[in-house]
Amino acid sequence: MSMSAPSQSRFQWFLVSFVTLGTLSLVTIWVVGITGLRVYLVGLFLILLVTSEVFPPLADGQWWRRLQVVKLVGWLITFSLLFERVIEVV
């Protein structure tokens, strides 16, 4: 199953943006001095959410359905990290 040209172009823009912003955020948090993996993963998840909203497919493609599953898993991990922090305080 091949993608249409506009959807493939959006997918390429999504990948380029996600990889570029992910790399820049890694360098930025390293320069600032934050070395926590959790901070980077939460930031990467936020980048994933933003880039997936900026470059949605024109037609519902297979890559978009897979991305929705990845986003759902990301939300579950984020909520579990948040829950863990709240439990530490309580």
From TrEMBL:
Q: Could you tell me which InterPro entries the record lists for this protein?
A: DUF8044
Please tell me whether the keyword Transmembrane helix is annotated for this protein.
yes
Xref: Pfam families: DUF8044
Q: Which residues cross the membrane?
A: 12-33, 39-57
Name the species this protein comes from: Haloarcula amylolytica JCM 13557
What is the protein named?
Answer: Uncharacterized protein
The alphabetical list of record keywords is: Membrane, Transmembrane, Transmembrane helix
